[in-house]
Structure formats: structure tokens, C-alpha cells
Amino acid sequence: RTGVITIPVVVHVVYNTSAQNISDAQIQSQINILNQDFRKLNTDVSKIPAAFAGLAADAQVEFCLAKRDPNGNATTGITRTQTTRTSFSDAGDYIKYNSTGGKDAWDRNQYLNLWVGNLSGGLLGYAQFPGGPAATDGVVCTYTGFGNTGTASAPFNKGRTATHEVGHWLNLYHIWGDDNGACTGSDQVSDTPNQGNSNGGCPTFPKISCSNTPNGDMFMNYMDYTDDACMYMFTAGQKARMDAILDAGGARASL
Ligand code: ARG
Ligand code: ZN
Ligand code: CA
Description:
The chain is α/β, with parallel strands linked by helices. The protein has helices spanning 24-37, 50-53, 160-169, 236-246, and strands at 5-15, 61-65, 78-82, 112-117, 125-127, 139-142.
């Protein structure tokens, strides 16, 4: 693909308390962060260690709040639904159905559905990979880990949960290969180092695992589990996977 693709987003705010009914400004802050991170316009690219800087990619994907709803009427790209449920989890996907205290998805062939609610158990977010059921397609984020203002709470207050989850939605795997610390798993990307397990917090470079000397883990990649302030890149290989899913013949080509 040459050029930038812009994906229309609908943000479904599902709230029990008024604090969970996050502001339009907080939602826009998240859209702005996605547009920085997927265009390599985030200011913290300057922190990428020199050994990895040449691998950092502009993914050439942008996001905008939808201007038309599925009926063709004008919309802000935000839906607001009050619920009697005090929290949600990934089990059952209740946040994604009107009938279970959530909000039905809009057509996944035209929109990225992004639900925001109160997730239980410390879950920051989760995503559905390409190829799954239409009704549950999209990304879910907890309201305290969304955008960089309002209810966003450190260390997950720089909008990187949505960046990470949209990465999954565009077919990216975790950088450590989801192998529980073994060196046998793979993220199916050739320019990310083999990495043992996930990293959390904010490691110091270099952090070695799986004999990946001298540069070690690419813990500053969005597809690791580090703090928002400590993740700031996708690679060219990750961009290639995203391109494949958005190109003709890919599961998200209609966007
Ligand atoms: N699915 C992951 C979780 O809930 C998201 C991790 C996002 N990481 C971040 N720094 N925001 O644990
Ligand atoms: Zn993940
Ligand atoms: Ca591994």
C-alpha cells in the first residue's frame, strides 16, 4: 500500500457512574494519540535506543471519529449508554450487546468499534483479531486507561492501551510470542528480537533474554506490556503485517 488510510471510529461509552461517562475531550485525546502513534508522530520516538531507531515505522494509519452513523445520519462518532452493570470483563463480551447491558457494534466493515467502560480485575483492555465474529469485532478499553486527560490514571494515562489493542485488531501479536517465557514463540515479525516473556514497568536498555545480545528485548514496542510512558514504537515488520490485513484480500480491506 502507498499512502495513508483513515479508519472511521465509533467510541461506545458504556457507563454506570457519571465518572465513567468520560468527556468528549478525553475521547478526542485518545484519537489524537492513535494518530500520533500510528504515524510515528509521537514525541517520545526520540527515546528509542539508537540500535532500534532504524526499525521504527510510520504505520500510515490514521483514525477519525465517524461523521455518519450506519443509517447515513450525522453523528459525533460517540455513543453513550447507561448501564446497570457495575463492571465488565472479556468473558461474555457483555459490553458489546444492548441485551447484556452494553452497546451493539456498528458495521465492522465500515468502522472500528471502540468500547470504553469499567473493566474488572485490572484488565486495561482487550481486542479481537481479524477473522472473528462481526458482533464482537473491535477493541475494549477501561475508562481509567483511555486518552491522557479526565479519568486517565498513571501509569496507563498516555493512551497506549488503545494503541496496543488496535495493534492486535490489525493482526499484531505480542512481541514476546505468548510462550510464557520460553524462547520458542514468535510474533511472526522478523525485525523484532526474540524475547522471553513480557516486560512490565519501565525497563532500562538493554534488557537481555533468549540470548538476544547485545540489544536485548524491544521492550519499548507497543506490543509489549510496559508502562504507557515506556512504549513508543512499531517496527517496519509490524507495519507489513498491518498492511497485509488492510490491503485488497485482507480481512479489513473494506475500511
Ligand atoms: N491487554 C493488556 C492488559 O490489559 C493491555 C496492555 C496495555 N499496556 C499499556 N501500557 N497500556 O493487560
Ligand atoms: Zn495484548
Ligand atoms: Ca518468548
